[in-house]
Design a protein that fits this description.
Blueprint (H helix, E strand, L loop, with lengths): L4 E9 L6 E9 L4 E2 L7 E7 L4 E10 L6 E10 L7 E9 L10 E9 L2 E2 L4 E10 L5 E4 L2 E4 L2 E2 L2 E6 L4 E3 L4 E2 L3 E2 L4 E10 L6 E10 L7 E9 L4 E5 L4 E3 L2 E10 L5 E9 L3 E4 L3 E6 L4 E10 L12 E11 L2 E15 L4 H31 L1
Length: 370
C-alpha cells in the first residue's frame, strides 16, 4: 500500500553444479521504494549447496506520494566475496487496497482463438473468472463479512520463449457479487521461432487482499502441421490435355478456413485456375480435379521432358493467413499417335466397298443368265 512498509521476500537457488561458498543478496531500491538504512540493503545467506534454496526478507517503504501502478526493483546476487554481481529486475504493483470481503475468485474457463496456434500466429486468450461464493454474507468467528470479490489487477505472463503477451495488465476491475463472472481477453503472439508443443503462461490475480491473490497456469498449444496436397493419380498430360487429381488433407489439430489450391506449370493452363475448398476439419480429406491444357504456343506439346508443377495451398488459422508451396512435382507429357488407327479405318472402309461392289456384280451376272 502507498505510504506504508512492505515485506519483500527473496528466494535464491543454486542451480549450478558447485557449492556457492558465500552468497549475498542486495536490494537496489529506486523511487518510490526506499530502505530505512543502507546497511539493510545486503543480506548474507552463506554457503549454498547445489540444488538448495534460501530466503531472506527485506523491508521497504513506499513513498506516500507514489502513484498507483507497476514499479521495478533490482535485486543483485553474488556467490562469493570476489565474485561479480548478477542483477535481475522484478515488477511490484503498488496502490492495491485491502478489503475484508471474503469472496474468492476462481478460474472457470480458458478459451484460445485459434484453439491451436501456428508459429507466427496472433490470437487471443479469454479467461472467465467467477466469484465462487453462494451467499451474500458469511459468518467467521462471530463476525459477518460480505462475500464480494474484487479483481484489483490481472496480468498474463509467458513462462517460455516464443510467446508474447501484447496487452498491459487489467486494473481495478470492480466488484464481483456472489456467483458473478467476468471475461478478460488478452492478445498474444507466437513468434516464428516458437517450438511445437504446449507453452505455459501465468495468470496472476490480485484479489480482496494478499490472502486472496492467486496464480493460475494457462496452457497455449503450438503446432506447425498444415495442409498437405498429394497427387492421387499419375501426373501426365496426353496429347496436350489431361485431368489431374489431388488429395488435400488438413493435418493440423484444429479447423482451417478458406482453404484453396492453385496449380502453376509453365506452358500449361488449368481449369479452374484455383480450386476453393472452404473450411476443413482436422484430418479431413478432400479430393479435387483440375483440367490441364497445354498452350498451343508452348513447347509442352512437342517435348517429352517433365514439366515442373507448383501447388500453392492457402488457408486461414483464425485471423492468420498461411500458404504452403509444393514444388517437387512433375507432369509427364505423353504423345499418343493416332495414324495407325486411321489407316485401319480406311482399310476397313475399302474392304467393305469392295465387298459391296462384288455383290452387285454377282447379282448382275446372275440376272443376265436368266
Amino acid at each position: 500500500k502507498i505510504g506504508e512498509y512492505l515485506t519483500l521476500t527473496v528466494q535464491v537457488e543454486n542451480i549450478g553444479g558447485d557449492k556457492a561458498d558465500n552468497v549475498d543478496i542486495e536490494i537496489v531500491p529506486q523511487y518510490p521504494f526506499s530502505l530505512d538504512s543502507q546497511a539493510n540493503a545486503v543480506k548474507n545467506v552463506g554457503a549454498l549447496n547445489p540444488g538448495r534454496t534460501a530466503t531472506k526478507e527485506f523491508y521497504l517503504f513506499v513513498d506516500k506520494n507514489a502513484q498507483k501502478g507497476v514499479r521495478s526493483i533490482d535485486i543483485r546476487t553474488k556467490t562469493g566475496k570476489d565474485s561479480p554481481w548478477s542483477e535481475k529486475s522484478f515488477d511490484i504493483r503498488i496502490g492495491t487496497e485491502t478489503f475484508n470481503s471474503k469472496g474468492t475468485v476462481e478460474l472457470k474457463e480458458v478459451v484460445s482463438e485459434p484453439q491451436v496456434f501456428m508459429p507466427g500466429d496472433r490470437g487471443t486468450i479469454t479467461v472467465t473468472l467467477t466469484n465462487t461464493a453462494t451467499t451474500p454474507t458469511v459468518t467467521i468467528d462471530g463476525s459477518d463479512f460480505d462475500t464480494n470479490a474484487r479483481i484489483q489487477a490481472a496480468v498474463l505472463r509467458p513462462l517460455s520463449d516464443g510467446i508474447v503477451v501484447l496487452d498491459a495488465p487489467y486494473g481495478d476491475m470492480g466488484i464481483l457479487g456472489p456467483g458473478d463472472s467476468i471475461k478478460l481477453t488478452f492478445n498474444v503472439k507466437v513468434t516464428e521461432e516458437a517450438t511445437d508443443g504446449t507453452h505455459n503462461l501465468e495468470l496472476a490475480i490480485e484479489g480482496n487482499s494478499f490472502d486472496y491473490n492467486s496464480r493460475k497456469n494457462i496452457p497455449l498449444k503450438v503446432d506447425s502441421s498444415n495442409i498437405k496436397v498429394i497427387p492421387s493419380k499419375e501426373l501426365q498430360i496426353v496429347n496436350g490435355e489431361s485431368t489431374l487429381e489431388f488429395d488435400v488433407a488438413n493435418t493440423h489439430p484444429n479447423e482451417f478456413n478458406s482453404v484453396s489450391i492453385k496449380p502453376e506449370a509453365e506452358g500449361i493452363r488449368f481449369f479452374p485456375a484455383e480450386y476453393f475448398i472452404g473450411p476443413m476439419n482436422p484430418d479431413e480429406l478432400f479430393t479435387i480435379e483440375f483440367n490441364a491444357v497445354a498452350d498451343d504456343s508452348s513447347d509442352t506439346r512437342e517435348t517429352s521432358e517433365p514439366v515442373n508443377l507448383t501447388l500453392s495451398a492457402s488457408y486461414n488459422n483464425g485471423i492468420n493467413k498461411h500458404e504452403n508451396i509444393v514444388s517437387n512435382l512433375y507432369i509427364q507429357p505423353v504423345e499418343e499417335s493416332t495414324g495407325s488407327s486411321s489407316n485401319l479405318l480406311i482399310q476397313g472402309l475399302l474392304l467393305a466397298f469392295i465387298a459391296v461392289v462384288g455383290i452387285l456384280i454377282y447379282r448382275k451376272k446372275k440376272k443376265s443368265k436368266k
